[in-house]
Amino acid sequence: MDAEDVWGSFAIRPAALWLEVGFGGGEHALAQIAAFPGIGLIACEVFENGICSLLSRLVPEGGQADETLPGNLRVWPHDARMLLAKLPDACLDRLFLLFPDPWPKARHARRRFVHPAMVPVVARVLKSGGVWRVATDDPTHQDWVRSVMAAQDLFDAPPAEETRPMGWPPTRYEAKALRAERTPRYWTFTRR
Length: 192
Fold this sequence. Notes:
There is one protein chain. 28% of the residues lie in helices and 22% in strands. By secondary structure, it is of the alpha/beta class. The chain has one domain (7-191): Vaccinia Virus protein VP39 (Rossmann fold), CATH 3.40.50. Strands 3-2-1-4-5-7-6 form a seven-stranded mixed β-sheet, sandwiched between helices. Helix 2 links the parallel strand 2 and strand 3.
């Protein structure tokens, strides 16, 4: 995928451009491209296991990896921050960050994607009215997200919901959290 010409990376220009940061096994990304065939989704994942999981869901058993993959999906196998730095202003309609590594130790907090330094970066690439969806089951990370988003003025930041909102496909990380009796929180931040 060419980050410099993100629209040209798709066979047909999508009606909207969405980005998923850290797609894990790819369940959410695949559900989104199936439900919204007119959008273009860029799925970012740095871990090979996640990329292999997504690709194994796309290529049928015994199929060839060079077979045609969905035209509305592109994979970015590098740090999402690198992609965000190259994307044009106000090009995204949605950004998803679902059940990321919480980096629970205080000394690791700078690695979190929801971070005071990242809020303006995300705001730059989201259109006015664009949506940033965040979900986490980790209490430390939940407190962190609340604190970071309460201290900024680029997004409307209503309180989190305790049940997955309509239109949010489930993920295996969410299922794992629920089995462990952890309570996920779901935020929808809207770009002002």
